[in-house]
């Protein structure tokens, strides 16, 4: 007898095949993650079971772990920068099959909601409400430990060896791309490069200022170089970031600690103000500086950094009256199912660089060290590989 395409099809309406898998569980804000064997229910209609092969640890995971995220829920399985292989599909899934290589998307692309159809944004709204509540689109969680349900995180939960996602939240990518590198395209690479090419649309010859040269900012620099920017000024309090910044295309480095008045200094360095600036830290004071270092009349400042609960941005309205533009970018403005496979191709064709940014690799059991390395300013990206 031929093997059924999936267990769910075989059993008709019962979709609850349960398996055990290893995951890093966040029980409480501010506490280390705990490695556990958790239960995972199989994929329901429109869902896909994925074996995660590798996941990056992004500053946003730390933001939520720390308790600064107003949407943060506990207990949860974090992680949103993964890559893996389809293990099983639920009924009705048509675009993916067992064995496909995929990148989970915290910004899905349903291609049918008002936002997707508008062509004005990448912020698909098909499942955002349930995603923010830490559950699948049907309102339930697939993860549990004993009788306790665990929340999904950003619709991805890639700090688990296996996870379940909606079909619309997976980008199918080529089979020959290494998981331990392309997982970074699931957030940092796409966010940084995308903010330059999709959100800001930086043009050749532009003068660009990038605040924060971490996992996102260095990708903004790489994007600005690819876009043909003429002057790329990097700003970071960590002097160790200068060398990597220059390697990725930065032409000038500024450590705010060495400068009396940062904004006039940046205006001078960019010959009257930046055409484009990017805030890649999540600090509302820097967001203001990033706007105010922009050129009068046309400078565009893009907020990428995520700021903690209760924080607000401020500037004199005159900054906007005189033509500066403040905008934001989520997932680099990229449409995941359409753009992510292309970005994987760019990596494989050596049009973009990723390897040098993956500074550390750890097994899941040591994932808490990734947060330590981040705080110590030692890592750009730590990638956790599943054995
Ligand atoms: P990271 O920790 O790798 O890098 C942050 C960098 O900022 C570090 O190099 C640090 O030295 C520098 N920095 C800290 N304080 C500074 C200051 N006062 N002045 C100048 N530089 C300073 O973090 P990351 O992974 O690159 O993430 C950066 C931000 O982007 C975070 O807020 C993260 O949550 C956010 N993010 C947003 C999106 C999005 O879609 N909008 C996607 C991913 C990450
Ligand atoms: N939950 C936070 C906001 C977090 C946030 O802005 N997330 C970014 C992605 S960061 C990836 O590392 C994003 O895509 N935002 C759009 C969205 O719909 O969440 C809060 O402040 O409530
Ligand atoms: Zn991220």
Structure description:
By secondary structure, the chain is an alpha/beta fold. It folds into 2 domains: 7-186 and 354-385, Quinone Oxidoreductase, Chain A, domain 1 (Alpha-Beta Complex), CATH 3.90.180; 191-330, NAD(P)-binding Rossmann-like Domain (Rossmann fold). The protein has 13 helices and 17 strands. It has helices at residues 7-10, 59-66, 114-118, 128-132, 179-182, 188-200, 217-227, 241-247, 262-269, 284-292, 317-321, 336-348, 368-375; strands spanning 18-25, 34-41, 47-57, 82-89, 101-104, 143-145, 148-149, 162-166, 170-173, 207-211, 231-235, 252-254, 276-279, 300-303, 325-328, 358-363, 381-385. The strands form 3 sheets. Strands 3, 4, 5, 8, 9, 16 and 17 form a 7-stranded mixed beta sheet that branches. Helix 6 (188-200) packs across helix 7. The protein is globular, with a radius of gyration of 21 Å. Mean pLDDT is 96; it is low at 1-14. Residues 58, 60, 80-81, 187 line the site of zinc ion.
Summarize the helices and strands and which ones pair or pack.
Elements: H1 7-10, E1 18-25, E2 34-41, E3 47-57, H2 59-66, E4 82-89, E5 101-104, H3 114-118, H4 128-132, E6 143-145, E7 148-149, E8 162-166, E9 170-173, H5 179-182, H6 188-200, E10 207-211, H7 217-227, E11 231-235, H8 241-247, E12 252-254, H9 262-269, E13 276-279, H10 284-292, E14 300-303, H11 317-321, E15 325-328, H12 336-348, E16 358-363, H13 368-375, E17 381-385
Parallel strand pairs: 10-11, 10-13, 11-12, 13-14, 14-15, 16-17
Antiparallel strand pairs: 1-2, 2-6, 3-4, 3-8, 3-17, 4-5, 5-9, 6-7
The site of nicotinamide-adenine-dinucleotide (NAD) has 33 residues, from helix 2 and helix 6.
